[in-house]
Amino acid sequence: MLNTPIRSVQWSGTHITLLDQRLLPAKTEFLSLTSIKDVWDAIFKLKVRGAPAIGIAAAYGLALWTQQTTLTNFNDFKSELVKQGAYLESSRPTAVNLFWAVKRILSVVEPVSSVETAKEAILAEAQLIEKEDEDVCRSIGEYAITLFHDEDTLLTHCNAGGIATARYGTALAPFYIAKERGMNLKAYASETRPVLQGARLTAWELQQLGVDVTLITDNMVAHTIKSKGVTAVIVGADRIAANGDTANKIGTYGLALIAKSLGIPFYVAAPLSTIDLDTLSGGEIEIEERHPDEVRTLNGQAITTPDMKVFNPAFDVTPSELITGIITEKGIIQGDYQPKLAKLFL
Ligand SMILES: CSC[C@@H](O)[C@@H](O)C(=O)COP(=O)(O)O
């Protein structure tokens, strides 16, 4: 049993050690990322995925670049660092944690005046981002658990677990806390076509944790909620707009509509680093569209003609009015999201 969850992104002194999430659950393999290009590629290809983990990988990616650069002039170093940050930001558009982490790393260079000091400050900040995410996820779990009772059955979508963060996850954090407290939370995981994060990652992660987890395909959600006594839906987020509209894995919006129709609560669990007050509403969030082959194939096997026309958005936006509560490290907010989200940052 994997009671201490695997760390999906770690700094290893000279490189980044990264769990290759594409291979799970068949193989638990770690990659050594030795250049910023490796980090871009890892984010783009979903070797690392999940909003907070992408942010941590990006922060370490910039730390890696700073350790390797031969630039000695501080102004040249600073302007190249900005370019490297923009390069990493071009890997995936939707999860705001990527942009948040790059911004945070760039900001530590402001008060310093030499390349050597900047290198140290950047690595320390990347390590702090990882450490803080662990604490934040634990806190999300502690707030989340107050919403549930022993023997409740929660349905979750995609993977917002320990491997998508520094530790504990966001939507899966209450399962870790429940285990510690001897409380029995049961789970249904929807498989999450086309990349199957629910089947490959969430079902595996909860099974490792010893949670009673059952896998369903995405089209079984309404029937399962109705027939199996699911008490709540809990998901993570990739970007929460200022008004509470939430971008998360494709399928989340449909889940929220089903939850509302069947009268069960729909919760979003996310850290403040996923809340983007500069994005006023969900309509402003850029939705990543991925390669059509993800839909044309299933586990590497073609399921359509090779030229089948495909629409493959990786995320959708759930309007805030369908969200029962947003669980953050600073507490749970319910309704009236605009002022309440803004207040979290004061
Ligand atoms: C704590 S992870 C929250 C979200 O990032 C997660 O729910 C999600 O949508 C991940 O999408 P992915 O495409 O796998 O990166």
- Estimated radius of gyration: 20 Å
Overall mean confidence score, pLDDT: 97
Give the low-confidence spans. Answer: none
Summing up helix and strand content along with how strands pair, one would put the structural category as: alpha/beta
CATH fourth-tier homologous superfamily of the largest domain: Translation initiation factor eif-2b, domain 2
Distance between the termini: 41 Å
CATH architecture of the largest domain: 3-Layer(aba) Sandwich
Give helix and strand order, one letter per element, not per position: EEEHHHHHEHEHEHEEEHEEHEEEEEH
Strand fraction band? 15-25%
- Tally of strands: 16
Shape: globular
Biggest pleated-sheet summary:
7 strands, mixed
Q: Strand order, biggest sheet?
A: 6-5-4-7-10-15-16
Bound small-molecule species: 5-S-methyl-1-O-phosphono-5-thio-D-ribulose
Number of helices: 11
Enzyme class: isomerase
Site (Transition state stabilizer): 158
GO molecular function, one term: S-methyl-5-thioribose-1-phosphate isomerase activity
Active site: 238 (proton donor)
Characterization of this structure:
- Homodimer.
- It comes from Halalkalibacter alkalisediminis.
- InterPro entries: IF-2B-related, IF-M1Pi, IF_2B-like_C, Initiation_fac_2B_a/b/d, M1Pi_N, NagB/RpiA_transferase-like.
- It is an enzyme of class 5 (isomerase).
- By secondary structure, this protein is α/β, with parallel strands linked by helices.
- The protein folds into two domains: 129 residues, Up-down Bundle (Four Helix Bundle (Hemerythrin (Met), subunit A)), CATH 1.20.120; 202 residues, 3-Layer(aba) Sandwich (Rossmann fold).
- 40% of the residues lie in helices and 16% in strands.
- The chain is built from eleven helices and 16 strands.
- The chain has a seven-stranded mixed sheet with strand order 6-5-4-7-10-15-16, with helices on both faces. Strands 11-8-9-14 form a four-stranded mixed sheet, with helices on one face.
- β8 and β9 form a beta hairpin.
- The chain is globular and about 65 Å long.
- The model has no long low-confidence stretch (mean pLDDT 97).
- The chain binds 5-S-methyl-1-O-phosphono-5-thio-D-ribulose (MRU).
- 5-S-methyl-1-O-phosphono-5-thio-D-ribulose binds next to α2 and β9.
